[in-house]
Amino acid sequence: MGNIFAERIEALRNMMADNGWDAVVVTGSDPHSSEYPAPRWKQVEWLTGFTGEAGDVVVTADHAGLWTDSRYFIQALDQLEGSGVELHKTRVPGAVLIPEWLSDKARVVAVDGLCQPVSAVRELENALGDGGLVVDVPDLLQELWTDRPQIPVTPVTTLDVECFGGIPRADKISWLRKWMLVQGYDKVLLSSLDEVAWMLNVRGSDIEYNPLVISYLLVSQDYVKWFVKKSVVDSELDPDTLDSFEELRMDGVDVEDYDAVFFALSDFGEDADSGVIFIDPSTLNANVYKYISDCFSSESVVCGTSPVILEKSVKTASEIVGMRQTYIDDGVAMERFLHWLETEVASGREVDEWEASERLTAFRSEIPGYRGNSFENISAYGPGAALPHYSTPREGSAVIRPYGLYLVDSGGQYLTGTTDITRTVPMGDCTDLEKEDYTLVLKGMIDLSMAVFPRGTAGCQIDALARMPLWKAKRNFGHGTGHGIGYYLCVHEGPQSIRYQYNPQPLLPGMVTSNEPGLYREGMHGIRHENIVLCKEAGTSEFGDWLEFETLTCCHIDTSAVVKDILGPEAVAWLNAYNERVYRTLSSLLPPETAAWLRFKTAPI
Q: The whole model's pTM is what?
């Protein structure tokens, strides 16, 4: 029997030949540039079998390639076997990205413009030059993907900011309108789903693990139009959704059908006095942008970075209070899980990675306000942990043994915040190399946690703090050190980051960011220590204003694999103080036997 993915690629090549296309670019995203798309838009997975969250595919008459970064190298080589698809590595020295690679190999390139942001299509057009052509074919794979899922329709809820923190939607709309007046824009079209959800204080479950609603938002000085895939005349809509729509209307938001965005843009384009429309080309898909370009004059369309991205990244005082409590609640679930895991494995019962993952989710589900996981649990023992984004198999997952290292990266969605935490757990005896790696990564995480830096510092300027212990030992990791965290929104958000790649966005008080260095040895073990930190004021001196981090995560760090001499006295003091704070915060919230166990686990070293 042939490889089904090789057969699908061959069918795509036949389509290319029929249409005169030299190449096709298939992206792993959706019409809103989402990191985690709904099943309908998992086109890379359908075509190649690759399930990673970051990857784009190029198919030509004689080549098929997947472009992805170091988080997925090992996974990609395994999943692409037999498909004929070759791995192209990104974010490594000498990497050749898709536009450059295609520049001398194709003249006519077809893309699904619904799933390609404007910025990506522009890069492709520039690379192809004057003789090249990028053809926009919406839903390009539709003809081949006969059982393709539909656009999801799930209930819509609104947030009570008085109870759960944040800013009323009317105030957010007023803020955006003031920004528009200052900039001279008459309309703003938002297409990024977390921006829309934040602006309107709405949540849904159209995308797994992300409380988002597939939609567009158009704002002017006179109206707010929300284009959403929930028909306002559908009698089968659940009562909560209908109530949410009525609440939105009371705040001046018109709820319209998802596809009506095209008609609305067409109507505005026919109006000579329609004014200037602002869009963000990094998130708006090329198909909608082409429609705007056809309807509006070129001077009436302004491209730039959406102001919503930065505004929602700086948490309000009420959101910070909510997140502090959320990380305490999440810590209770984590400690109950870690106690259960250690007890079960030590008893001799065979616990595999999947059972452990399900048990952790069960503990989280008991927390009031829990609304699901914030991403798929990474539950990995031994060699599996060497894959930074390991996908735990339901059947045949590895048994967790009473020795070596187990890694669990997980998080929850709660009404008062989103969590993300990684703990690497020594299950018993560890080799000297495992202990050394464990301690070097931990030292990097602690060194970054203790950072004090001047206002205006960007994450790329302090990334080396987390890497220096590893670099001194000539070791490294390929992924970023930190990403923004949403407030009951996406577990990954910007604009800030902590990574060695250049990002000029300064870290600002109120930003919540992960701190997660790692180390991965293929076929052996993987280590990652992740806490979530809040950027806050650290005082003023004659040299200016200073910032520091407050660690929000409240879950102990196991000291049994720590090499004290490698960690050093300052980091040891931080670790002892952190573990003591975890115990004092959580002990009264835990079952007595778990609290007693935690007292032992947090004893100073």
A: 0.92
